Amino acid sequence: MAKVNFTADRVASFEAVPGKTQTIYWDAKAPGLGLRVTPAGARSYIFESRLFGKTVRITIGDARAYTLGKARTEASRLKTTIDDGKDPREQAAGERAAHEARRLEARRQAASVGDAWSDYLEYLKTAISPKTKQPRSARYLADHIALAAPGGEPLKRGKGKTVRGPLAPLMSLKLSELTAKTVATWLANEARERPTNAAHAYRLLKAFIRWCAGHDEYVGAIPPDAYDSPKVTAALPQSKAKDGDSLQREQLRTWFEAVRKVDNPFISVYLQGLLITGARREELAALTWDDVDFKWRSLAIADKVEQETGRVIPLTPYLASLLAELKRINETPPNVRQMRTLAARGETWKPSPWVFSSKTAADGKIAEPRFAHNRALAAAGLPHVTLHGLRRSFGTLSEWCEVPVGVVAQIQGHKPSALAEKHYRRRPLDLLRMWHDKIEAWLLEQAGIKFVPEQQKEGLRDVTAA
């Protein structure tokens, strides 16, 4: 197309040639300057020239945003650049990269620990753990949230407010302020009041700092020795199990009496189940009725270590009788008045899928049985034992029955601690059941609980009949 001396009126009047996706008009005054017009009426200034024998075409901008004089000035600049043997596109890409680098550096300098921690939590929620090759558990994520929480929120149960997490004082700092001196001072302050929590928080902080070092937005923002400086490691407290956080043999009678008196039958059985199975609190709380096999006396546990396959452990006779009663309660329909109330709210009744169900919990299963357990301990005059302490008690008290260590570890879901255990021991469920039944029978004997398993009752009836 012939070149035309552009004017503002001519630029506004140019039309696309029918049948073409675009029509380009060339300016006779500014070399390389063109106007591209589409059938939809869009107009944009372009520049075209040749560099090293190849055509270079660059869009200058919308004709509504660029005046003709400004477009000619930009075309002249681009022409000069090409005449110097430089590609304007490469220059623009370099400028964009430099701008992005400056933007990232500014973000690195301004970003707070709390900002980066939020991004880190999103990463943990979506990425697969390189250690377990599984998504992170809800409890693992909740730990990160709780340990960095500022506190001051009303308690969900009881009066008072939540306590701040040990990582909370660091959240308002800039990443660049997370120096070895800062971390060492923080760790020393936290360790004075809660050493175990401080040690746990430090491990999470160390993983967070390593993540920042490998993340483009935060790389280089934190000093490299922030977590492994001698100042920091010197302030790191030893993380150890609570002294005495385990039931003794002579305390079993009192403990069982107190726990069996808990008003809520689901919590009462849950607490007894923790001691009898040695399971982790979350594992047992997540038990559904589909996981319970009364016929073959087994429980399918969602294992913390073997997350993909879980583990199957024996269902001991006494615990089976307790669960059978919970199943009866769970499957008993509400009375007529309660049914009418549900109908008025547009709801229907159905049994809960959870073994340890709760009508008040958001997800339908018990959420915080610690309070009932602590009240039972206080009423019985027993020293404080945590829910994890009941798991510890199972492992400790099992030694009275001279149970092989590997059997206890397999029931509890511990990783094999020896080469032979790891590669050469595959104990079937019936072998575990034999030992597990002995453990439960010994616990009941110490507690003074008279319990006769169903199979023994059948044997007694046969003898009587004879």
Explained architecture:
This protein is an alpha+beta fold. The protein has three domains: 3-86, 2-Layer Sandwich (Double Stranded RNA Binding Domain); 113-235, no CATH class; 249-465, hpI Integrase, Chain A, CATH 1.10.443. The chain is built from 19 helices and eight strands. It has helices spanning 8-13, 68-83, 88-110, 113-126, 138-147, 180-193, 195-213, 230-235, 252-260, 265-277, 281-285, 317-330, 336-344, 370-380, 387-397, 405-412, 419-424, 429-447, 454-465, and strands at residues 3-4, 23-27, 33-37, 43-51, 54-62, 292-293, 298-301, 311-314. A five-stranded mixed β-sheet has the order 1-2-3-4-5, covered by helices on one side. Helix 9 packs across helix 14 and helix 10 runs antiparallel to helix 12 (317-330). The radius of gyration is 36 Å and the shape is elongated. It starts with a strand and ends with a helix.
Beta-strand content: 5-15%
Arithmetic mean of pLDDT: 87
For the secondary structure, the number of strands is 8
Per CATH, the superfamily of the largest domain is Intergrase catalytic core
CATH second-level architecture of the largest domain: Orthogonal Bundle
The share of residues in helices is 40-55%
Q: Which parts are unreliable, with pLDDT below 50 for 5 consecutive residues or more?
A: none
Largest sheet: 5 strands, mixed
From the spread of the alpha carbons, the general shape counts as: elongated
CATH topology of the largest domain: hpI Integrase, Chain A
Q: Cα distance, first to last residue?
A: 116 Å
Q: Tell me the name of the CATH class of the largest domain.
A: Mainly Alpha
- Helix count equals 19
